[in-house]
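hiii, so i know i said id send this last week but things got crazy w the move. better late than never?? heres the sequnce for the chain we talked about at the cafe, plus the structure i predicted for it. fair warning i was half asleep when i ran it
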Amino acid sequence: MKKRTTLPRLCASTAPSRGLIPPVDFQTNGHTAYAATTAGPAAAPAPRKLVTAEFTQATLPAGVKLAHQCEDDRLIAMYDPAKIDALDARLLSNIYVDYTEGDQLDRIREMGREATGTRTRDLFAAVLDAVDNGDDASIVIAQVVDLFSQVRAEAGE
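okay and structure toks below
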């Protein structure tokens, strides 16, 4: 029996006004998704356009963790750090929009996504948090690399 699921969509580059897309109804069968209104497998989705993203911290209304605005080649995302961390804001945004913040921050986001330990994941979230607080990404990353070098030297590695 196929499982029927409804997923909300928050933002996409083709979003109607107010940045919302109504829930999408689809059926899943293992790893193959079927559109609810078709008899067979859905056509392969078109590649999504890669946009440049900018994340900022803000105090958002009750119940709102993350807000997006999509404009042509830009994603502007605001998140409330009291409700969601910098890494989760990016990972959630990446579900709806393919974006880049530059090679260094993209790699940090991916390493944070792949982290298995809570402490390791929190480290990547802290780095992204420092960047979102207005610090220059290259300076923050250089400081983290220096810190790792010091820890390794103290450990005798």
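btw The CA atoms of residues 63 and 83 lie 9 Å apart. thought thatd interest u
miss u guys!!
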